[in-house]
Specification:
single chain; alpha/beta; TIM Barrel; 8-stranded parallel sheet; two-stranded antiparallel sheet; 11 helices; 10 strands; 41% helix; 16% strand; globular; binds the ligand O=C1C[C@@H](O)[C@H](O)[C@@H](O)C1=O
Length: 288
């Protein structure tokens, strides 16, 4: 196991999030420069509006700054029979093709633009979602893109029940987000021990499990817990990042590891701390 780990970054560590009203959104110039300063040359796109919308312009914007896109996070409403997510997905995949991006990270959007609500899909909604996920998987493959599902707090794939259904009833791989797995009540290390073959992409995120338990129990809203620092620099929380990386590598996973410490920057004084945290996380991963 001497091959180098493929390390990338994502704008969420700089507070750039798809949720309206999340907090201060640092501009792409700052975010991409910081990534480059950390020796990172690959990034996820970040939410709509962060980079130029036009696919060609977006790809040029990145390459002029010495960066390459590996793909991005794409929330999609898949469970409603009055809404077909596939036409918009097709457009997104065209942009991926133009940018040479290889990974489409789907999340199961609940339609509320917030991660503070929790619910399971009904059996009927799940049957429709599972069918559409398999279609999305095939559609993406026809563009040369690997579609993966991101289990995520406050989406319709959060809990152990939802993750199990995804594994059993679909063909699609997962974006294993170590922090969201733990925060959603799953055991990320046990998961990779059992299902490393279903991991198609990895988001490395560490989490304070005491804070995460409060979110799970409904004692604090997810967005408030993130603002309170529920996500920690890699290696300083409870997600067992080192053991997870080692297990994945032993199982032959050779895809991307994207560093993500979800940040809500509510005050300018927090910006430099966010940047220091990414520096610490990068150093931690490189030490493994
Ligand atoms: O992969 C991700 C993308 C983010 O924008 C999202 O909010 C975050 O939680 C995440 O894990």
């Amino acid at each position: 196991m001497t091959n180098e780990l493929k390390l990338a970054a994502a704008p969420i560590s700089w507070g750039v999030c798809e949720t309206p009203g999340w907090g201060k959104q640092l501009d792409p110039e700052r975010v991409l420069t910081d990534m480059k300063d950390l020796g990172i040359t690959h990034t996820e796109f970040g939410p709509a509006g962060f980079l130029p919308e036009d696919a060609i312009e977006r790809a040029e914007f990145l390459s002029e700054r010495g960066m390459t896109a590996i793909g991005g996070f794409y929330p999609a409403v898949m469970h409603r029979d009055d809404h077909d997510p596939l036409p918009a997905l097709r457009e997104e995949l065209e942009a991926y093709r133009a940018a040479g991006a290889e990974i489409l990270v789907l999340s199961l959007d609940n339609g509320t633009s917030s991660y503070d609500d929790k619910r399971e899909l009904t059996d009927e909604e799940w049957a429709l979602t599972a069918r559409r996920l398999n279609e999305a998987h095939e559609l993406a493959a026809s563009y040369g893109v690997r579609a993966v599902v991101h289990q995520h707090v406050g989406t319709l794939c959060e809990s152990p029940v939802a993750v199990e259904r995804l594994i059993n009833d679909t063909e699609i791989e997962l974006c294993l987000d170590t922090g969201h797995m733990l925060a959603g009540g799953n055991d990320p290390l046990a998961f990779v021990g059992e299902h490393a073959d279903r991991v198609g992409h990895v988001h490395l995120k560490d989490v304070d499990s005491a804070q995460a338990t409060k979110v799970l129990n409904g004692d604090i809203a997810y967005s408030d817990a993130v603002a309170d620092g529920m996500y920690r620099p890699l290696g300083t929380g409870d997600a067992q990042i080192g053991a997870i990386i080692r297990t994945l590598r032993e199982a032959g996973y050779d895809g991307w590891y994207v560093m993500e410490q979800d940040y809500r920057i509510l005050d300018d004084s927090q910006i430099e701390q966010a940047v220091r945290d990414v520096q610490d996380s990068t150093a931690f991963v490189r030490s493994i």
